[in-house]
Design brief:
single chain, mainly alpha, 60% helix, 0% strand, transmembrane, DUF485 domain-containing protein, transmembrane helix, membrane
Amino acid sequence: MSPPISGADPAPVPERRRVLVTGPRTRAARRPRPPVTQEIDEQTGLGEAYMRSLMRAQLRLALLVCATVGAGIGGLPLLFVLVPRLREPTPLGIPLAWLLLAGLIYPAFVACGWWYVRHAERNERDFADLVDRPS
């Protein structure tokens, strides 16, 4: 350390005090949170948020299935208009358009319905797991 400059006293250093930092009181009685099912039954803000999230997920799924089915049904006539050669073939003496409508559309409806039910039940199962989870 270098000596002080020509008779100037060094500035006094303020005394530092130690501060004790503690965590939250762990022995204090905590008020138990009501279960989520009670929040939903009482229609509190939290319960409404849970229900909105379920309804939003189910709506998204329904719109996706409707758009898929609508594109399939609307796309078939559009396909026959845009590609006129597809209107000409008549396998088994039945026009191709009728075969596709009878043989392709209904199995597609069943497949989309099965897919929708499977995913809707999964959404509800996930929601039930979220609601029943301990706080």
